[in-house]
Structure formats: C-alpha cells, structure tokens
Recover the amino acids of this structure.
C-alpha cells in the first residue's frame, strides 16, 4: 500500500438514536462528538437514526412513523 493516501482506520462508536444502543467497531468515519466507555477509552460517536436493533424488519415489530399526520390524511382521502 502507498503511504499517506488512505484514511485513518480507528475505533468508533455508532449510537442508535431510537433506542440508545451503542455499537463499537472500527471505521474511517469520525465525529466531533466523543464518548468515554466503561473501558476508560474515549471514542468518536457517529449518531444513526436506525440500525438493525431498531428497524421493524429485524425486530419483528410493525411500527408506523407518522410525520405531520400524513397517514391520517391518506386514509381519510381514500377511505371507502
């Protein structure tokens, strides 16, 4: 491999914002936010909206996210 052309590959914490789960892995991603875990090390935190721990397909739960009543508008408009 050539020197000085590859991004740094380091430990990172991915945080699922919907349930608070933390996933520690290695990545080239970085963040200004930092977190100190129980091992005493400080890691950059990359927030994620949804992961396999909170997605309905993986959890077996059907959830409907209604933003600004759009689902109700749709059901009202096409109700028969």
């Amino acid at each position: 491999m050539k020197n000085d052309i590859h991004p740094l590959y380091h430990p990172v914490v991915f945080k699922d914002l919907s349930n608070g789960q933390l996933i520690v892995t290695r990545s080239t991603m970085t963040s200004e936010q930092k977190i100190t875990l129980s091992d005493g090390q400080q890691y950059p935190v990359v927030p994620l909206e949804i992961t396999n721990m909170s997605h309905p397909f993986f959890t077996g739960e059907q959830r409907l996210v209604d933003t600004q009543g759009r689902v109700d508008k749709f059901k009202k408009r096409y109700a028969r």
In short: The longest strand covers residues 10-16.
